[in-house]
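Field notebook, page 287. I keep forgetting to write these up properly, so this time I am using the form the group agreed on. The chain and the ligand, N-oxalylglycine, are recorded exactly as supplied. Prediction of the bound pose follows.
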Amino acid sequence: MSNLSTPNSLPNCGIQCTPMTPAIGAELSNINLAEPLSDAATAFIRQALLDWKVIFFRDQQLDTEQLMNVARSFGKLSLHPFLSGKPDTPEVLAISRNRERRGGENIWHSDVTFIPNPPLGSLLYSHEIPPIGGDTLFADMVAAYEGLSDEVKQKIEGRQAIHDFRAHRVLMRKAGVDEEKIAGYEAKFPPTAHPVVRTHPETKRKLLNVSVAFTEYIIGMDRAESDALLQHLYAQASIPEYQVRFKWTKNCLTFWDNRATQHYAVSDYWPAVRTMERVTIEGDIPC
Ligand code: OGA
Ligand code: MN
């Protein structure tokens, strides 16, 4: 596979890049992210992200400020449409799962695709992880697109689909958020259209841009046909050949390209505790 060679073409900055599957996921080592990143290290990490779509750094001691600094090297930080961040750093989501709050991200999705410009990526840092369980799976949506039959590729070429925050709405209702507040979010974040097949803005690769969590229907297609086609497209994320499954340890940083991947957080550890911090980078409008 062509991406096995990169980012060796970049100036050597000492970072080791160890692929985890032929298609997706690499572990980067021999780098301390608590220190300011050199230009060479930043370029290497960015290229590794583009090549491997999700990258992992183990044994990093990062406070919230350092986590934000790492993220800022790769773009502008963004606020989540509904989830409140930490009081002094609203760009940082504290994600805590425990006896009272079971993990709810166990559905295949790219983050926040229900806005016009979904995130470029997110950086998720582990503070406390369960003794067993709590893995995260990532799926390569370039491979998922390339694996489609020519007939399906033809059917979806040039199509747009509507995305909506349905999955969040379900969670909000479960958490007792009042209907007036939900209606406010609906007014602020109305359903939005995105291409079913997106061209990655940096790698120029075509990729599948629909998810079971946030996609509603394909515009201009009979609803039954759209439903059947979307079920087929959603199922692509579940194919093991397109996936990497990450086993967290404490103080890991995971950085995913939200444009090129979907993820699924396995919710198998209740009532154990899992505590993470997430910072998200603004993306552009898919085309
Ligand atoms: C997220 C998410 C994955 C995880 O932060 O967007 O889906 O493993 N989390 O917690
Ligand atoms: Mn997510």
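OBSERVATIONS:
- The longest helix spans residues 39-52.
- Residues 105, 109, 111, 263 surround manganese (II) ion (ligand 2) (CB under 6 Å).
FOLLOW-UP: compare against the apo run.
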